[in-house]
Amino acid sequence: MALHFTSEQRLDDGVLERRFTLGEIPGILWTPASVSAPVPLILLGLPPLGLHKMYPRLATRARHAAADGFAAATIELPGSGERPRQAPFEQARADMRRAMQAGEPVSDEIIDALILPLVDQAVPEWQATLDALLPLPEIGGPVGYSGGVISIGIRLALLDPRIVAANLFAGSFVPRTMFEEARQITIPLHVLLQWDDEGNDRQAALDLFDAFGSKEKSLHAHMGGHTGVPQSAGDAAAQFFTRHLM
């Protein structure tokens, strides 16, 4: 897939923000205000809510990464934002919403239908994004992955050796088959968990953390709901990437 930059702007802190398309996939690349040598890259995962809706949070994370000397990039997930809707995704999302509104557990069948096709499509797109961005003269690697749908992070960390460290958000449903993939991961992991996340199965998140095969892994749990992540969590994640990408 060909990479085409479609716009660029300097943010008020000097960070260069460039929007691009990779084939039909929209994305954004942020690079530090001053780049004298190629810098490491952090891939910013996002939930399937759309790039436009998530832009304020993504831009904040990217600017913090740039202040630490990293480039950051994100892409729109399949079936989200401006990308064509996919009937199986839409049906699985509707089934999930109905179960949650009824106060019922979300079944394994719904979770599999919602997450596994998304992982199967999104991970090759992230790998194509790396293929396109790493040859740029201002980006030199290594690469980290941060946030987003945790199952995408698991598969990407397992399959792509260019990912050398990952900061994972334990806030999305995880198919049971992903636990076996988690056991095969060996890169350093920094896992965030909101203890009172209303949409997250806390015990499943703890079981997943236990399953990760990495010798270096840390779990950072904070009180509060899904959107109540404290500033200190971002600071700790930044220190994690500084240790492993610089």
Structural class, by secondary structure, is alpha/beta
Helix tally equals: 7
Instruction: Give me the CATH superfamily.
Output: Alpha/Beta hydrolase fold, catalytic domain
Number of domains: 1
How do the SSEs run, as a string of H and E? EEEEHEHHEHEHEHEH
Poorly predicted parts:
none
Strand content: 25-35%
Report the mean per-residue pLDDT as an integer: 91
- Look at the structure and give the CATH class: Alpha Beta
Main sheet strand line-up: 1-2-3-5-4-6-7-8-9
What distance separates the N and C termini?
29 Å
Portion in helices: 40-55%
User: Which outline best applies?
Assistant: globular
Based on the structure given, which CATH architecture is correct? 3-Layer(aba) Sandwich
Based on DSSP secondary structure assignment, what is the total number of beta strands?
A: 9
Kindly report the CATH topology: Rossmann fold
Q: Main β-sheet: number of strands, strand sense, barrel status?
A: 9 strands, mixed
Fold and architecture overview:
This protein has about 250 residues and is an alpha/beta fold. It has one domain: Alpha/Beta hydrolase fold, catalytic domain (Rossmann fold, 3-Layer(aba) Sandwich). Helix content is about 40%, strand content about 25%. It has 7 helices and 9 strands, in the order ββββαβααβαβαβαβα. The chain has helices at about 50-65, 85-100, 110-135, 150-160, 175-185, 200-210, 230-245, and strands at about 5-10, 15-20, 25-30, 40-45, 70-75, 140-145, 165-170, 190-195, 215-220. A 9-stranded mixed sheet has the order 1-2-3-5-4-6-7-8-9, with helices on both faces. Strand 6 (about 140-145), helix 4 (about 150-160) and strand 7 (about 165-170) form a beta-alpha-beta unit. Helix 2 packs across helix 3 (about 110-135) and helix 3 (about 110-135) packs across helix 4. The protein is globular. It starts with a strand and ends with a helix. About 40% of the residues are buried. The mean pLDDT is about 90.
